[in-house]
Amino acid sequence: MTRPSTYEHSRYLEAKRTVDDRALHRPTLDRLRESLAGRSAPLRVVEAGCGTGTMLRRLLAWGILPDEVVYRGYDLREEAIDRAVGGIATWADGAGYVLEIEEGSTGPDAGPGRTLRLSGEDDSSATATFAAADAVEVARRTDAEYDLLVGCAFLDIVDLDRALGPLLGLVPDGLAYFPITFDGETFLRPSFGGDGTIDGSIERAVLDVYHATMDAPDRPGGSRTGRELLEALPAAGGEVVAGGGSDWLVTPPYPDDEAYFLHYLVDGIEGAVSEAIADDGDVDGSSSVAGADAAARLSPEAVSEWAEARHRGITEGRLTFGAHNLDVLARVESDDRIE
């Protein structure tokens, strides 16, 4: 078998934890740590698209957050929230925290939540509440205010124009940290064509169509959100204070569960491209000329053969994958919310 028989989104999120660990732009993290050091306790943190809680674990383990933290994380997927609670509990035990879990606690404007209270031997503490909710809609409704907003790999899958203003409104006179924001480049190696398996132009067409699907007007997000964010933040009341590249790079031999991460991505690319070319080779809703031209060169059989070859490369430990992302840290100067 060259690929998994089923895919689970929460497992993918956990599998990419080590990929993100390597990718995160350290100078931007250092600036974040320095900027948080002088803030009054407890530090109030809100995360949009918290997934399985890997960013909270990371920020605590790496000493980015101060000794007293109150955190709230939102994600649309109940399964991700369940895994976040379990993951934090397991991590906290190994990190020397005393843990209490409160079921059914209520978060502001988001319905029931689940709260974990972590107490460290050095008198550090973190209270984390997770709730299944749309973070942008919560931001529109709530009067709650925070010191730090986190959105990891989030803004490139939502409508940036619709989401950014309300989210920044959560952190008046605070900070907004948007790491791992996709910015338009994907590559896989080794290249096709040398052994006659698949023409290299097929892969170029697949990736062109894949990026074009991200930019379709009927789909939230975009393939160049990273660079667009640098202009959108000042317009929405934020000042960019740090940033840098946070490229994903996965090479064999694959550590931890990173082979699953790669299989999941290849499957996602195959699904998006297959759907896009299903209607007489058109990229549904996309205005990308390159994407439309690429789609015209593809057939369902060619896309399937491409995916099978790339899954086989993962299974055999030969595939290298890369994607270009940006980390951006901004200071929010006012409490003016853009609706």
From TrEMBL:
Q: Which domain of life is it from?
A: Archaea
InterPro entries tied to this protein: SAM-dependent_MTases_sf
Kindly provide the name given to this protein in its UniProt entry: Methyltransferase domain-containing protein
What species is given as this protein's source? Halorubrum aquaticum
